[in-house]
Amino acid sequence: MSHNDEYADRVIELTGVGGGAYWTLDWQKIENSLGHALPSDYKRLCEELPPGLFNEFLFLLHPIGSEGESLLGRDARLIETVEGFIENEEECPGRRGHIFPCLITDNGDVGYWIADSEDPDEWTVAINESRGPDWQSTGLSLSAFLYQFLTGEYEVGMFPESVQNGEPVFSSSFDY
To answer: What is the pTM of this model?
Structure first.
């Protein structure tokens, strides 16, 4: 079991939700639609967890769910936004065609995979502040970031302190 898989297991355990989904995901079709592969820990989280909200603040962009919370519904628009930063030569931890959205917050901050490796399991997450050019590179995989954020081991400077302290909470309006 990889390090990322261990973190995915920990995130699923923290939510208290995992244990079998009532949906199936055609990863080949999803990846073909996006035009790139996806990390295995992300796939594992999406197979076990419904679309939902972590700490009443952070959405994992899931392939299913409402357009606002869906990876497929938000991908192109969020990539267009980040490529605007790159075009305007604003500081960005990724390069054109190698930065993909994976998270979004209630405040509009966006987490992106920095795809600086051919292996998606080596991608790390960077957070872009809402409506601004500031970034925080985590150096962590998606599942490691989620776990450390939920347990208070990792803080994001642009996130409100109130969502980074306390017990991890996961809620979903998805009927499963």
So the answer is: 0.88
